[in-house]
Write a structure and sequence with these properties.
296 residues, CBS domain Like, 2 domains, six-stranded mixed sheet, five-stranded antiparallel sheet, binds zinc ion
């Protein structure tokens, strides 16, 4: 089962977030039919999304992250909430670029240069929104830069996805360590040392460590605050698709009724298709107040 933990160290001056996302990234891979480098990029952002969702203060809040790069992957979007639900999509899933020297999946080149945009729906009148320039396109570096610049929180971010030779997901996860405002020199020095000796998160997951074990191994006095299951879960359903259809122009709805005799809508986040019959479309049109539908 995929899980995430929140923890504290050094009397609360250091915050720790760790998740294992192997199963949910595999679900994303199957839904979107991603090639290995696209799997790694989407998996990294989904894993980071889970952790950033858990940083939200309440169950009503949501976070959405968009990476728009000039590389072949185009746009990546991930939505997450506070309860461990995350969903995501990639503009071009058919990307498989490896670094010639290291033989590793080259996420940085697949993403390219561009922007990371973070929108927090804090259940208030206005959303919190912030954009930073991508630093390397490797996603971990870009998020660390975002935390420093937009949230004034020095953070170490490790995100990683290992892909099997059959293209399925072998191991995936994320780790974020953050310095709270009252962190002192010693906290920073010890953390730099911890980070310098840290194995890649995907390797620790592959070796069978749980998020809890990973968090506990970081410092001497780690206190686990919360542990919860996480999953790839999309909030789409037929009702939401129906409301989307009801925003269309009458003329477009009529085309769907009289020319196509129905329609099929697909959710970009999870690739689920919803079919609407001619009858259902007529009902939508009626609710829109188009009174002459019945006898057309
Ligand atoms: Zn969906």
């Amino acid at each position: 089962m995929d899980t995430m933990v929140r923890a504290l160290a050094h009397q609360g001056r250091i915050r720790i977030f760790v998740c294992k996302t192997t199963e949910l990234v595999e679900v994303a891979r199957q839904r979107h039919d991603t090639f290995p480098t696209a799997t790694a990029a989407l998996g990294r952002l989904l894993s980071a999304g889970v952790l950033m969702g858990s940083m939200l203060k309440s169950e009503q809040e949501k976070i959405s992250m968009t990476i728009r790069g000039d590389g072949p992957l185009k746009t990546l979007i991930v939505d997450a909430d506070h309860q461990g639900n995350v969903r995501g999509l990639v503009g071009n899933p058919y990307v498989n670029i490896t670094n010639e020297k290291t033989g590793k999946l080259d996420v940085g080149r697949a993403v390219g240069n561009g922007l990371l945009n973070v929108v927090k729906d804090l259940n208030m009148k206005t959303d919190f929104t912030s954009s930073v320039e991508l630093q390397t396109g490797e996603i971990g570096d870009d998020l660390a830069y975002y935390f420093l610049v937009s949230e004034q929180t020095p953070s170490a971010v490790s995100v990683g996805v290992l892909v099997n030779t059959d293209a399925s997901v072998l191991a995936s996860g994320a780790l974020i360590i953050q310095m709270m405002p009252d962190a002192d020199e010693a906290d920073i020095r010890i953390t730099e040392n911890v980070v310098a000796h840290l194995k890649p998160i995907s390797q620790m997951i592959q070796e069978g460590m749980t998020p809890k074990e990973i968090a506990l191994a970081l410092y001497d006095d780690v206190e686990i605050l919360h542990e919860q299951p996480i999953r790839f879960e999309c909030s789409c359903n037929k009702e939401r698709m129906r409301s989307a259809l009801s925003t269309l122009e009458v003329i477009d709805l009529k085309d769907m009724i009289y020319e196509d005799h129905g329609c099929e809508l697909t959710c970009h986040f999870c690739n689920t298709s919803y079919t609407f019959t001619e009858e259902e479309l007529r009902d939508i049109l009626l609710l829109k107040g188009a009174d002459h539908v019945a006898h057309s």
